[in-house]
């Protein structure tokens, strides 16, 4: 009995080796795409791959599979460029998707090459918030606008709502006066200071003739994602109704951020 099983195994191995050799030796077998990556910026996920130079132009077909539906769905078919936007095939940005690509040259096709698991909320990069700065009475008001979802150059909404858009960011603001950092960890909570378009930060403008500059970045603890840092915006305070130099700088709701 044991001998029979062993013989059968050996035979099966020999057959499968022979099959592999036959396919390797096929004269015009089509190579599979390589380096399959999904990259996303501002929730615009794009699949990229690489392909070797061929005498005849290859075309590619891409399929995407969602965790929930667990079925491969055609996404881009017979395209000749090396990228495919998969935004429309992600129905839940917080769950996994996979993508795969095959190449066709003439009548022959390669096998599929598959991407790694991709979770849009977790693996996507997010651009900076936009800032606006103004002076109001003796305060400097900074508006921090949530990053926008931009798909194929079109605005699709604002990142503010964990469920549909992954993130409700907390913002860290970096404030300098005359170029020296005075407080680098202002932690804006969401409820009082923020709404669905922006967060608003105000700091007392206590130093006359001083230039105040602010930049900010958003932080999502849920996904461990930090946005890119915004450009610095600056304002110079020339005169001020507050007298005395030693008023506490920050009277507003500020929390230390660690
Ligand atoms: C794979 O693609 C990434 C992103 O386009 C690139 O940085 C990397 O160098 C590529 N790797 C190889 C082995 O070609
Ligand atoms: C893609 O190309 C193949 C081979 O030329 C063809 O059979 C198929 O119909 C094409 N599919 C689409 C959607 O154009
Ligand atoms: C959000 O807050 C800002 C500043 O407090 C306000 O100007 C803006 O109208 C608010 N937006 C909405 C949609 O409530
Ligand atoms: C910033 O510089 C201006 C002029 O150079 C000076 O008058 C002002 O006191 C400085 N502010 C601080 C906080 O050092």
UniProtKB/TrEMBL annotation:
Residue ranges of domain Fibronectin type-III in the record: 4-111
Membrane topology label: Single-pass type I membrane protein
One Gene Ontology cellular component annotation held by this UniProt entry: plasma membrane
Gene Ontology terms describing biological process: response to virus; type II interferon-mediated signaling pathway
Chief place where the protein resides: membrane
Protein keywords: Cell membrane, Disulfide bond, Glycoprotein, Immunoglobulin domain, Membrane, Phosphoprotein, Receptor, Signal, Transmembrane, Transmembrane helix, Ubl conjugation
InterPro entries associated with the record: FN3_dom, FN3_sf, IFN_gamma_rc_D2_pox/mammal, Ig-like_fold, Type-II_Cytokine-TF_Rcpt
Pfam families hit by this protein: IFNGR1_D2, Tissue_fac
Signal peptide: 1-18
SUPFAM superfamilies found in the cross-reference section: Fibronectin type III
Cell location: Cell membrane
Matching Gene3D superfamilies: Immunoglobulins
One term of GO molecular function: cytokine receptor activity
Domain Interferon gamma receptor D2 per the UniProt entry, residue ranges: 131-238
Subunit structure: Monomer. Heterodimer with IFNGR2, to form the IFNG receptor complex. Interacts with JAK1. Interacts (when phosphorylated) with STAT1. Interacts with SOCS1.
Family, as annotated: Belongs to the type II cytokine receptor family.
Protein name, UniProt field: Interferon gamma receptor 1
Species name: Microcebus murinus
Taxonomic path: Eukaryota, Metazoa, Chordata, Craniata, Vertebrata
Gene label: IFNGR1
């Amino acid at each position: 009995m044991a001998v029979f099983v062993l013989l059968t195994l050996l035979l099966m191995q020999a057959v499968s080796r022979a099959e592999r050799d036959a396919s390797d030796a096929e004269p015009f077998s089509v190579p599979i795409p390589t380096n399959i990556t999904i990259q996303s910026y501002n929730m615009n996920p794009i699949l990229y791959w690489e392909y070797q130079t061929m005498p005849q132009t290859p075309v590619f077909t891409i399929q995407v599979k969602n965790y929930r539906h667990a079925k491969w769905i055609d996404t881009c078919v017979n395209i000749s460029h090396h990228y495919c936007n998969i935004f429309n095939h992600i129905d839940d940005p917080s769950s996994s998707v996979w993508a795969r690509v095959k190449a066709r040259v003439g009548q022959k096709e390669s096998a599929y090459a598959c991407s790694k698991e991709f979770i849009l909320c977790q693996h996507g990069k997010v651009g900076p918030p936009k800032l606006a700065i103004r002076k109001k009475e003796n305060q400097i008001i900074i508006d921090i606008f949530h990053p926008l979802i931009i798909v194929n150059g079109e605005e699709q909404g604002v990142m503010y709502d964990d469920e549909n858009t992954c993130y409700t960011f907390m913002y860290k603001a970096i404030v300098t006066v005359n170029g020296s950092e005075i407080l680098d960890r202002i932690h804006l909570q969401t409820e009082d200071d923020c709404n669905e378009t922006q967060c608003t930060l105000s700091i007392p403008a206590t130093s006359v003739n001083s230039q105040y500059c602010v930049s900010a970045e958003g932080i999502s603890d849920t996904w461990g994602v930090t946005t890119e840092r915004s450009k610095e915006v600056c304002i110079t305070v020339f005169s001020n109704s507050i007298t005395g130099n030693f008023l506490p700088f920050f009277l507003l709701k500020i929390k230390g951020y660690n």
